[in-house]
Amino acid sequence: MPASRRGSGSVTLLTGQTIAIHTRTQDEEDLPHATKKTMADHLRKYESLFTLTPQRMRMIVEAFTETLELGLNKPNQIVPMIPTFVFGWPTGQEKGDFLALDLGGTNLRVCLVTLQGEGKFEITQTKYRLTEDQKQDDGQKLFDFCAECLNTFVETNMGEGEGQLKPGQCLPLGFTFSYPCSQERIDHGELIRWTKGFGAGNTEGRDVAAMFKKSLEKFQLPIQLTALINDTTGTLIASHYVNPRTKIAVIFGTGCNAAYMEHVKDVPKIENLGIDPAAEMAINCEWGAFDSFEHEHLPRTKYDTIVDDTSNKPGEQAFEKLISGRYLGEILRLVLCELIDEGVLFLGQNTYKLERPYIFDTAFLSLMESDPTDELLMVIGIFTHFFALETTLAERQFFRALAKLIGRRAARLSACGIAAIVSKMGYLEEGCSVGADGSLYNKYPGFADRVHEGLQDIFGDKGRNIITHHAEDGSGVGSAIIAAMTKNRKDAGLYLHV
Ligand code: GLC
């Protein structure tokens, strides 16, 4: 970047993409534009729409806690509180080679995980990008693609040399399928509904583990599906493997969800299964569905309503739609489009590029928030490069402030979810660690700080006892550990519910 910050330069985005930057000294005069005062007035309006007071947060926590209880008491609730059949914590001594397949949102990942005991592991992995068509096409085809990727991975990494499979050897596989599935045992899972924009046909209501096994058979792979897990459950177990203070796991990525360890005696809806009431089992909350359909508790703006109405699943995942990476960029884009329609922004410029739904990536919000320059060069770069739009400094400051409001609201709502689990489980006094993962948590500047600040707004000083930390890779390593735990249970003759 030129030292004077005048003229042109380039900036490399986190994604590796390089964008051109142009700074102008007289931008206020080039085009018709909103004045600084107008932008400040607009900002005040959005501030009141997107800001959550501590009092409002406490009300949300109360409703959230009741919802969690309801999901544990009765089957088929909106927040389903899914028993995962992952019993208790890992010992840290789980060992061996395991495959993990991770179907989560944007990518498909295949991993070979070698658990070495004492909380140590090694991982080899390959990522495959999913196309939009694959997400919407027939479900069996999607699983066939997963099996095909697994086949390529095994041929490449275990076909010959050191890692070569021995004749007759069969590798246990943990399948991380990060969508709500109701489970009767650990290698079973009926898809309740697709989330995160997926919509593959002939899958909802069916056992995805059985569907995937069918795809595996086509390739005659020496692999046995041992466990079907959710990314949050994997994160919970993987984080505990390396940090035993972890009691809760949260994903802030394309979707948003949490898992925690529950006492079987406190899950009345599975009383009939005859599991030892003293046992512990991980619960996949699927809290993204909180306040779905009824919309009674969460503060939704009209932009949130538009995001919901135009989604492939209107009414569903109400909490997730205010928080997760899939939606934040779209919320900001909708505010900008409103101001374009009102004749406030980009007068005399062609705004067609910005008018395409979901074109404003959530990564742009984090880039705008982390722009270190007074002139907001990064913001200039985003708008000129991706949307062919000229901006004034006042506008750029407004965009950045708006990103902050939307990002902050997401973090504070997330704090409400965490607080609900903490209250329900009585973790506040003793404190606990929350393993967190996902692009928003890992890449959005200040996200974790805002969650912590939110927890203090809810609980006062004691909120400091609840600390989030970057989690271990739950979908890869966690999946392998759960496959190992399941295998150990089987070897120990605990067939029931394995
Ligand atoms: C969505 C899915 C959930 C997953 C979360 C994070 O909320 O329904 O299963 O854990 O995204 O990936």
UniProtKB/TrEMBL annotation:
Pathway: Carbohydrate metabolism; hexose metabolism; Carbohydrate degradation; glycolysis; D-glyceraldehyde 3-phosphate and glycerone phosphate from D-glucose: step 1/4. Its EC number is 2.7.1.-. GO terms for biological process: glucose metabolic process; glycolytic process; intracellular glucose homeostasis; mannose metabolic process. Keywords: ATP-binding, Glycolysis, Kinase, Nucleotide-binding, Transferase. Residues 43-241 form the Hexokinase N-terminal domain. SUPFAM superfamilies: Actin-like ATPase domain. The keyword NADP does not apply. GO terms for molecular function: ATP binding; D-glucose binding; fructokinase activity; glucokinase activity; mannokinase activity. Residues 247-485 form the Hexokinase C-terminal domain. One of its GO terms (cellular component) is mitochondrion. It catalyses: D-fructose + ATP = D-fructose 6-phosphate + ADP + H(+); a D-hexose + ATP = a D-hexose 6-phosphate + ADP + H(+). Belongs to the hexokinase family. PANTHER family: HEXOKINASE, HEXOKINASE TYPE 1-RELATED. This is Phosphotransferase. It comes from Rhizopogon vesiculosus.
